[in-house]
Amino acid sequence: MNRQLTMLIVDDMEVERISFAEIFKDEYQILEAENGKQAMEQLEQQKVHIVLLDLCMPVMDGFEVIREMKQQDKYADIPIVAKTAIDEKTEVKALEAGADEYIFSPCDPAIVKKRVHNLVEKYILEREKIRAQLEKEQEMGRAKELFLARMSHELRTPINGILGISQLAHYKDAEVREDFKKIRYQAEYLWELVNDVLDMAAIDNGKMTIRHVAFSLNEVVSEVSSLFYSQCRMKRIYFYFRVDNVTHEYLIGDAIRVKQVLVNLLSNSFKFTEKGGTIEVCMSELDVDDSRTVLHITVRDTGCGISDKALEKIWEPFEQEQHENGKYYGGSGLGLPITKSIVEQMHGTIDVASEYNVGSKFIVDIPFEIGKSIVREKRKSDH
């Protein structure tokens, strides 16, 4: 053993306590108790790794000690070796109560030692190995978290600089503007890639947080629809953002994450939809009660669609389908897994229906508390 463990010997006969202490004194720090009550007091005061317990004692017998230890979380994992005179019925009763091993008295000291040793190997040392491995993994997790925090700063800072410089090219001549436009496009792609990787790392480490504050659904719709309306117009894709049967303008939740879900799904549709295609968002509200509502969102496109085989792995990180036309659409393969994680952290659901070479439809339902008692006329709008 790497370190000395503590054994509690519980027996009302002093000669028995001395006898067992002699057997184990070289391997264990020995504590003694002459009845169950004293045993529980010793457990409360000191760290004990294994209990050698006589079953027949006054004040509080061994069966009561076993039951008491197994009912308390702080003692439940301590191995118990029950001891009494030869009696098969008592042995069964002790094991049913929760004892981990059983020895008869009198018994060959070598047998007692071997049984206790086997029990220690099985329970205590194995737990020590698991604990050491867990501590190692936690330390690696902390190192990974620190690395990601540093990388976040180190990667985003120069990308921001590139984006800023390329923006200045608008004041230059046409040829320079075209060159900087290409640079900006690559920088924006790299920015999205870095954000996806860092978001996925945050999800894996349980570090992604969801805020619960009042936000305007109008603002979310306006920002997202404006962004994609201009992009789709440039690519000559028909874009519609329909809001039907939405009566609550203010909800309690995380506006940034809601926008991220919409942007991820729309970016996916935009990427796979060719010129002349259609992207349509439909948003509606399903009232649950006076204080809560469910936002129902569908994002439909007439893009290249997803095959049945690829559909099975669509929520897995880094999964991307190679289309039959050989075209590579780019991206990290993290957008949809991140979207699913965000929706589920907001206690929502997300599903997909798709037909290869026809298009895809994503369906999202997210519950929200109603932020303010502002109820507007039901509205319908297209953007």
3D structure, described in words:
This protein is an alpha/beta fold and 383 residues long. The chain is 49% helix and 21% strand. It contains eleven helices and 13 strands. The strands form two sheets. Strands 6, 7, 8, 9, 10, 11, 12 and 13 form an eight-stranded mixed β-sheet that branches. A five-stranded parallel β-sheet has the order 2-1-3-4-5, with helices on both faces. Helix 6 (109-168) packs antiparallel against helix 7.
Give a concise summary.
With 383 residues, the chain is α/β, with parallel strands linked by helices. Helices cover 49% and strands 21% of the residues.
Annotation keywords:
about 375 residues; alpha/beta; eight-stranded mixed beta sheet; five-stranded parallel beta sheet; 11 helices; about 20% strand; disordered C terminus
Task: Give the secondary structure arrangement, pairings included.
Blueprint: E1 5-10, H1 14-24, E2 28-33, H2 36-45, E3 50-54, H3 62-71, H4 73-76, E4 80-84, H5 88-97, E5 101-104, H6 109-168, H7 174-204, E6 213-216, H8 217-235, E7 238-244, E8 250-253, H9 255-272, E9 278-287, E10 292-301, H10 308-311, H11 335-345, E11 349-355, E12 359-370, E13 380-381
Parallel strand pairs: 1-2, 1-3, 3-4, 4-5, 7-9
Antiparallel strand pairs: 6-8, 7-13, 8-12, 9-10, 10-12, 11-12
SSE pattern, N- to C-terminal: EHEHEHHEHEHHEHEEHEEHHEEE
Identify the overall geometry: elongated
Which secondary-structure class do the elements indicate? Answer: alpha/beta
**How many H/I helical runs?**
11
Report the helical percentage.
40-55%
Strand content: 15-25%
Mean pLDDT: 81
Question: Which stretches are poorly predicted, pLDDT < 50 over at least 5 residues?
Answer: 373-381
Number of strands: 13
End-to-end separation: 72 Å
By oligomeric state, this entry counts as single chain
Largest sheet: 8 strands, mixed
Radius of gyration equals 33 Å
